[in-house]
Amino acid sequence: MKIIFHGHSCFEIVGRNSRILIDPFLQGNPTADVKPDYFKELDAVLVSHGHDDHTGDYLEIAKATGCTFISNFELSNFAQKSGVRKTHAMHIGGKHEFDFGTVKLTPAWHGSGIPRGDGTFLYGGLACGFLIMIDGLWIYHAGDTGLFGDMQLIGNSCKIEAAMLPIGDNFVMGPDDAVLAAQMLQAKYVIPMHYNTFPMIRQDADSFVAKLEKKVPLSKGIVMKPGQVVEA
Ligand code: NI
Ligand code: MN
């Protein structure tokens, strides 16, 4: 399986016969390495919550590729009303087997309001994370979240190949809490995300990895640059 980083919290996961995209924040993201029209064939686009830096370009990408939009019930209904042909609504704790692999929605301590652009929000359900199995390997994308103890349950429930964890602080976990998260998850690879996209979430990812590898010997930290590919 290939894990490709496209900046912020956006990852493309490529399996033997599958290709999915998570949190496609591209046009509004100065650090993104691709534009929405880069994606020609996708099985699914997954969105963790209603904030702009995660929904990003999902509408354009889902319409252009005809892929399935997967998110919580509220965002899936919103996507459907916005013109996405194929949507699959899920909710926290629920798991579904798709043609490309398995997706389970995990809790995330965060908001999920969809900004209307006038300072008010449309209800977007609850923020979530994703446990995804493709080609027999589990990936955990935590979404936007603070630290929570049930990550222990997630870590115990499956052997995680790669965990994408936010480290930006302020809106999500900071580096120290992300190390505690990694302790519970015991993933083979830990990939920091949601930092350095804008000044408020500036972090030193290399020092996060140094702390991580000291406290969690089983995990290898990988600081990915936009466009970089990791083989798992
Ligand atoms: Ni958010
Ligand atoms: Mn965010």
Task: Characterize the structure shown.
It contains 6 helices and 16 strands. The chain is of the alpha/beta class. The strands form 3 sheets. A 7-stranded mixed beta sheet has the order 6-5-4-3-2-1-16, with helices on one face. A 7-stranded mixed beta sheet has the order 7-8-11-12-13-14-15. It has a two-stranded antiparallel sheet with strand order 9-10. The longest helix has 11 residues, at 175-185. The mean pLDDT is 98. The chain binds nickel (II) ion and manganese (II) ion. The site of nickel (II) ion (NI) has 6 residues, from loops.
Q: What is shown here, in short?
A:
The chain is built from six helices and 16 strands. The chain has 232 residues and is an alpha/beta fold. Strand 1 and strand 2 form a beta hairpin.
What is the chains' assembly state? single chain
Distance between the termini: 5 Å
> What is the mean pLDDT?
98
Radius of gyration over alpha carbons?
Answer: 16 Å
Bound molecules: nickel (II) ion, manganese (II) ion
SS element count, helices: 6
User: Biggest sheet: strands side by side, in what order?
Assistant: 6-5-4-3-2-1-16
Contiguous low-pLDDT stretches (5 residues minimum) are: none
Largest sheet: 7 strands, mixed
> Residue share in helices?
10-25%
Number of strands: 16
The dominant shape is globular
Which percent band covers the strand fraction?
25-35%
| SSE series | EEEEHHEHEEEEEEEHEHEHEE
Q: What structural class results from the helix and strand content? A: alpha/beta
